[in-house]
C-alpha cells in the first residue's frame, strides 16, 4: 500500500509527498516531532505537522538565512542562531573563517538529538566542533539577558505559534538590537509572501522601527508553503546591497553566490507593495 504525507499549509492548500518510511515520531514537551523518509525529498523533519527541513532542498534555506548577513558584515566573529535545532544554519555559519564562536539556542533538546540521529548531513556541525556551542533554552530569554555580544543573529524559527510566537514580536527585535554589537545584523525567516502577507508587513514595519537599515529578500524553497520564502534583515550599519562582489568568498554553496546576493533584494512588485 502506498503511504502519502500531507501538510495542510493553509486551510485551503497542502503539500503531499509519498512516504517510503516513517523513521520516528514522538511528542516532545514543546511539539509533535516526526522524521519521515520521502521518495522526492529524502528525509524530512516535521514539527506539529509542518515541514521544517528536508535533505533534498535544505541547502536553499540554510545557505540563504546565513550567508547574506555573514557576507554583509565585514568581520563576523560572534554569531547566534535562535531555533534551528536541525543544525543546518550553524553548518553554514562555521564555513566563515572569521567566525570564532557560533552559538545555537534551541528550546527543544529533542529536535537537536533526533536531527543528530536521523539528519547527519544537516546536523554535522552540532557535535565535535570547538567553535560551536549548543544551548537548550528559550531564545527570547537568551537575548533578553545579553548585551552587545553578537555580530550576527539569525532567527531560524518555527511558524509564529506556541513557543515561537514571541520570536515575531517588536519587543524581541528590540532585545536583539541590544544583544548585537554596534554594527550588528539580524536576519529572521518571515514566511511566504503569498500566504503570510500580513505577517511580512507587520514584521517589516516593526524591524524598521528598531533598525536603521531593514531589507527583505526572497529564495525558492520547494517544500515551504507556496515555494517562495522571505527573510527580513535588520542592520545597524552595513547595507547588504552595497557589498562588493569580490569581497564575497566562495563557500562551496549550491544556491547562494555573489550574483544571488545582489539579485535577491530586487523584489517582485506585489512583494514590494507589502513593504510600503
Ligand atoms: N527552517 C524551518 C522553517 O522555516 O520551517 C525552521 C527550523 S526548526 C528546526 C525551528 C526551531 O525553532 C524548532 O526546532 C523549535 O523548537 C525552535 N523554537 C521555537 N521557538 C523557540 C524559542 N522561543 N527559542 C528557541 N527555539 C525555538
Give a verbal description of the structure.
With about 280 residues, the chain is α/β, with parallel strands linked by helices. It folds into 2 domains: about 5-55, Spermidine Synthase, Chain: A, domain 2; about 60-275, Rossmann fold, CATH 3.40.50. Helix content is about 30%, strand content about 30%. It has helices at about 60-70, 90-95, 110-120, 120-125, 140-145, 170-180, 195-210, 260-265, 270-275, and strands at about 5-10, 15-25, 30-40, 40-45, 50-55, 80-85, 100-105, 130-135, 150-155, 180-190, 215-220, 230-235. The strands form 2 sheets. Strands 8-7-6-9-10-12-11 form a 7-stranded mixed β-sheet. A 5-stranded antiparallel β-sheet has the order 1-2-3-4-5. The longest helix is centred in the N-terminal third of the chain and has 15 residues, at about 60-70. The protein is globular and about 55 Å long. The mean pLDDT is about 95. S-adenosylmethionine binds near residues 82, 111 and 157. Pfam families: Spermine_synt_N, Spermine_synth.
> What string, H for helix and E for strand, traces the elements in order?
EEEEEHEHEHHEHEHEHEEHH
The rounded Rg comes to: 18 Å
Give me the CATH fold name of the largest domain: Rossmann fold
**Biggest sheet architecture:** 7 strands, mixed
CATH architecture of the largest domain: 3-Layer(aba) Sandwich
CATH secondary-structure class of the largest domain: Alpha Beta
The number of helical segments is 9
- Domain module count: 2
Binned, the helix content reads: 25-40%
User: Strand sequence of the main sheet, in spatial order?
Assistant: 8-7-6-9-10-12-11
**What's the total count of β strands?**
12
Overall spatial form: globular
The termini sit apart by 51 Å
β-sheet strand percentage: 25-35%
The structure class reads: alpha/beta
Q: Average pLDDT value?
A: 96
What oligomeric state do the depicted chains represent?
A: single chain
